[in-house]
Amino acid sequence: MTALTLSTAAAPGLRADAIVVGVAKGAASKSGGLVLAPGAEAVDQAYDGKLADVLGTLGASGAEGEVTKLPAPAGFKAPIVVAVGLGALPEKDETFGAESLRRAAGVAARTLAGAKKAAFALPIEDAADAGAIGEGALLGAYAFDAYKEIGRNGKDAKNGKGPLAEIALLGGKPRDAAYKAAVARATAVSEELNRARDLINTPPNDLNPEAFAAVAQAAAEEHGIGVQVLDVQALEEGGYGGILGVGAGSAAGPRLVKLTYTHEAASKHLAFVGKGITYDSGGISLKPAGHNETMKCDMSGAAAVFAAVVAAARLGLAVNVTGWLALAENMPSGSATRPGDVLRMYSGKTVEVLNTDAEGRLVLADALWAASAEKPDAIVDVATLTGAMMLALGNRTYGIMANDDAFRSAVHEAAEEVGEAAWPMPLPDHLKKGMESPTADIANMGERYGGGLVAGLFLREFVGEGITWAHLDIAGPAFNEGGPFGYTPKGGTGTAVRTLVRLAELTAVGDLG
User: Residue 11 has what DSSP assignment?
Assistant: First the structure.
C-alpha cells in the first residue's frame, strides 16, 4: 500500500528515488514554449535557471501526460528529476485545475513503479491542490499483481515492478488542519477505490457472489458498518425473483448484501445500489466469442457502491448511507432462466425475460425495491448495464439518468467536480411501449435503438413512489481495455466511487438539493 505524506523539506536535500516537477505548454520561447510550473523553483535554481531549456532540448513540450527524465543536478540526494506535463498553461491569474494535477500526479506515480520514495514538487496553492495531487498519485500508483510472482512472494519478478511505495508532497503543510484533512481524505477515498479495482480485476473463479459478500462483510466489521447478507434461502423466502432468476444457472448461488453506515448527526439518508454480476456469460442468451473475456468486470457497480460506503465511514461523514450489493453469476445450465420465462420480482411485478443477457436490470430491480422500502432521501444505482451506452458516449464517459432533472444535474456536477467524465441522458416515455408484454407486467427488453435509455426506464419502474433516483450506466469507463492514462490503469478503474463519495459529502453538509 502506497504511503502519502506532507513534507516541508527542500528538494535538494530530500532522500528519494526521484523528484517530480510539473511543466506546461506556454507561448513560444527559447525553450520551445515550455514553462516550469510552480513548485519547481528549487530544482530550476540547481540547473542555474535553465531547467526549461534543458527539458526543451530533450524534446519536452509540456503536453498532458508527457514524461521526461533527466539526471538530478550535483548536490541532490535524489538521482533523477521527472518532469511531467500538465498541459496548457492556465490563463493569467488562474491556477492549474484539480483534474490536471490529479492526472499529472498519476502519470508520475505510474512511471515510478518500483521506486521506494518519490518527492512531488507539483503546484500546491492550497489544501485542495494537495488533496488532488495526493489522490492522483495514489490512484496512479495502483497495481494489481496478486496473481503474478511479484505479488505472491513480494520480490521483483522478471517483468514486473511493485507500485511506488511512498509519496512525499513538497510544499505541503504537515501541521495545518486543512492540509492534513485533505491528505486523509485522499488516502481514504483512493484506498477504497483501489480496493474496488482489486475486486473488479479478481478472476471470477475466485470472486463469486459468496466470496464478494465475505469481502464486504469483513470490511464492514472492520469499519463499524452494519451488514446483512441474504443467501439463497433468505432470497427465496423474501421473494427476490429477479436476483434468483439471474443466478439460477450458476453453481454459485446469488447474494444480496446490505451495508448500513449511520452517523449520529445525520439528517439525510442516501441509498446506493450496485449491480454485482461477478461473471456474465449472457446466460442462455450466450454472448458471442470476443464479448465475454472481460465479463468479470460486470460487478463494477457493486464494487463502487461497496467502496463508497466504506469511504464514507472512514471519513465519518454526517449522513446515513445504505449500500445494496445485488450479487449473482449469470451462467447457462439446465437450471438457468430461459428466454420466455416470467419472473415475479420482489416488488410483486412480473417480468417476461426476453433476453437473459439483459440480466443486470433484473438484479437491480429487486435491490431498488428493497432500498425504496426504507424511504431514503435519494437512491443512486450504479451498473455496467448496456453496450448501448458505450455506443452513445464511448469508453470514458458514463451516462446519468434520473426521475428528477435537478438531481440529475446535481449528480453530473458532483462527477465533474471529482474528475469523472459523465453526461446527463433523458428517459423518453415513448420508449416504454417497447417493453410491453402480452404475458407479464413488463418485459426486460424494448426497442433496440436507445437501449441504454430503455434500461433506465425499466429500472424506474422499481423505484418507490416519491423517491428521488438517479441511474449511472458505467458500462464504458468501468473497465479499461486499452493502455493506462493519467491515474487510470489498464483493467478495473473504480469509476463512480468518487462521484458517490462526493454526493455523500454534499448531502452531509446540506449542499445537495
Answer: G
* Cell triple for 34: 515550455
Within 234-355, strands assigned E span: 255-261, 269-280, 320-330, 342-344, 350-352
Residue 53 to residues 12, 90, 127, Cα–Cα distance (Å): 20, 20, 31
Tell me the three cell numbers of residue 311.
469511504
Q: Could you give the residue numbers annotated as active site?
A: 287, 361
Closest CA to 304 of 472, 497, 480: 497
Size of the chain in residues:
513
Is the CB of residue 273 less than 8 Å from the CB of residue 327? no
In our burial notation (b when 16+ CB lie closer than 10 A, e otherwise), range 384-409 reads: bbbebbbebbeeebbbbbbbeeebbe
Closest CA to 125 of 101, 92, 91: 101
pLDDT at 214 over 50: yes
Residue 36, beta-bridge partner list: 23
- What DSSP element (H or E) covers 479? strand 479-480
For residue 34, give the H/E element and its range: strand 34-36
d(CA 312, CA 301): 17
- Residue ranges of alpha helices (H) inside 112-153 are 127-140, 149-153
Q: Average pLDDT for residues 347-371, to the nearest whole number? A: 98
Neighbours of 336 (CB within 10 A): 20
C-alpha 52/C-alpha 50 separation (Å) is: 6
User: Distance (Å, rounded) from C-alpha 442 to C-alpha 432?
Assistant: 9
The CA-CA-CA angle for residues 262, 215, 302, to 5°, reads 70
The whole-angstrom separation of Cα 213 and Cα 231 is 10
H-run or E-run covering 418: helix 405-418
φ and ψ of 309, to 5 deg: -65, -45
pLDDT digits (tens, 9 = 90+) for 236-280: 999 999 999 999 999 999 999 999 999 999 999 999 999 999 999
Cα–Cα distance measured from residue 19 to residue 424, given in angstroms and rounded to the nearest whole number? 40
- Where does the pLDDT of residue 91 fall: very low under 50, low under 70, confident under 90, or very high at 90 and above? confident
CA 365 → CA 381, 407, 444, 461, distances in Å?
10, 20, 11, 8
DSSP conformational letter for 67: E
- Inform me whether the pLDDT recorded for 469 exceeds 60: yes
Q: Are 209 and 328 in contact (CB under 8 A)?
A: yes
Number of neighbouring beta carbons within 10 Å of residue 48: 10
Distance, CA of 26 to CA of 198 (rounded, Å)? 39
Determine the average pLDDT of the residues in 419-440.
Answer: 98
pLDDT surpassing 80 at residue 156: no
The C-alpha cell at 382 is: 450504479
pLDDT tens for 20-69 read 999 999 865 555 589 999 999 999 999 999 999 999 999 999 999 999 99
